[in-house]
Amino acid sequence: MEMTREQKIDELLTRGVADMIDGERLRERLMRGDELRVKLGIDPTSPNLHIGRSVVLLKLRDFQELGCKVVLIVGDFTGQIGDTSDKESERPMLKSDLIKENMRTYTSQLGMLIDLSKAEMHSNSEWLQPLGFDDIGTEAEHFSVAEFIARENIKKRLDEGKRVSLREMLYPLMQGYDSVAVHADVELGGTDQRFNLLAGRRLQEAHGQVAQSILMTDLMLGTDGRKMSSSWGNTINLLDTPNNMFGKVMSIADSMIVPYLIHCTRVPLAEVEVIEAKLFDGELNPRDAKLRLAQEIVTLYHSTEEGEKAEKYFVETISEKKIPEDIPVTLVNAEQETVVDVLVRMQLATSKSDAWRKIEQGGVSIDGEKISEKDTHLDKTKHHNKALKVGKHGFVRLQFS
RNA sequence: GGGUAGGUAGCAGAGCGGUCAAAUGCAUCAGACUGUAAAUCUGACGCCCUACGGGCUACGGGGGUUCGAAUCCCUCCCUACCCA
Q1: Which of residues 116-175 of A touch strand B (CB under 7 A)?
Q2: What confidence tens digit (pLDDT) does each residue in A357-395 have?
Q3: What is the reported pTM?
């Protein structure tokens, strides 16, 4: 059942949306069919995008599907300044070649969700680099120190006696100036970006432009229920392998199933509501809902086929503790290698000590039988074609020449 | 320019002459349990060694005092905060 344009717009403006500024005008313009310029700034701080970021990327895709122009801005210049919005501590300045490197991997990840051929892409050094002190002074005149230090995270740091550099104050200015430079009609961002997003409106007005509308998305929680952040290690990355991605989704708390469905997939909202209701009165096993969710997410970044394969792997390997069919094979040199050597060589252990520990703790088995002797030698007649297992999901099939 | 507090394992953060490969928390890994790669509980968590023992390298860099230093001294580098 195809949604009407109006329904699509409704969903765009509500699904996973925490807050909007100037939302009414945005709706009107969308209804009218204007080709709006939708801006999203990308901060190339780490090489991996995670699902938390996908909330806003999916929004961007929705806009694109409605015929709007996606304008991506790579913060190659701002990246060197460091945003303060979501950090408790000062951000380091990034080296410009590191930024370039990150950007390469970013672009391919963005392409998973957005049609880059129809999008505009800019680096903000294009227009920020040439600005002189006088220009910066003029822009800076529109902001006061008081409002900057009133921001919650800044205030907290100041109260704790932590350092806040003057440089950081310039960040909102720059992000705001980006909006001026690309004539943005809409800007997307997480709720933590509010101040920066508003800075765009203020500067646009100062430059005689119509202030952009703002759409803020909810922040996504990580697999452990805390905020999803690379530094917490609780992320699900877009570049995760299907099996990995599937497994990580399965490990989220039950209470997050519905939020994930809403924010990180495009399962029709009506269907999400049904799932939510069924979960609520126990008609649906949370595990099954989660399997569905994991499927959807893997499918989004890989393919339906991969999604199904990942589910099969999970059910068989994790739930039923079977040995999967598709595992790496290694040729063992029986004369020279012990189990420990093979573990290290196949990167199932980080060092010999680590391999030793894993064996001692009962985490290593061959063909379902635990190994207790650390220096177990491998033997062709006994071990040929048998699977060596480490932990829950480390496998290697042993072969002998 | 002046003052003060610091630089310890992936991170945070104890230790302040021997019992320190270094408390604790987080992250990580293994085990038990489970619908689950969740939660919880248990254990491990520098590297190497034919291994309930032994060796080597580590507490910003360099040098020194001492039988012995992460801990004391000198020097260098770096960081933060406060005052001007």
Answers
A1: 161-165
A2: 999 888 998 888 888 777 677 888 888 888 999 998 889
A3: 0.81
Q: Which residues 242 to 281 of A reach strand B, CB within 7 A?
A: 243-244, 246-248, 250-254
Question: Which nucleotides on strand B sit less than 7 A from a protein beta carbon?
Answer: 26-32, 35-39, 43-51, 79-82
d(CA A110, CA A238): 9
Cβ-based neighbours of A84, under 8 Å, separated by 6 or more: A90, A91, A151, A153, A154, A164, A168, A171
Shared domain for A341 and A314, answered yes or no, is no
Protein chain A, residues 291-320, with a C-beta closer than 7 Å to any atom of nucleic acid strand B: 314, 318-319
- Among the three residues A267, A301, A319, which one is the final residue of a domain in this structure? A319
Where residue A364 sits, what CATH number does that domain have? 3.10.290.10
pLDDT at A167 over 80: no
Count of structural domains within chain A: 3
For residue A262, what are the domain limits?
242-319
- Other CB atoms within 10 A of residue A166 CB: 7
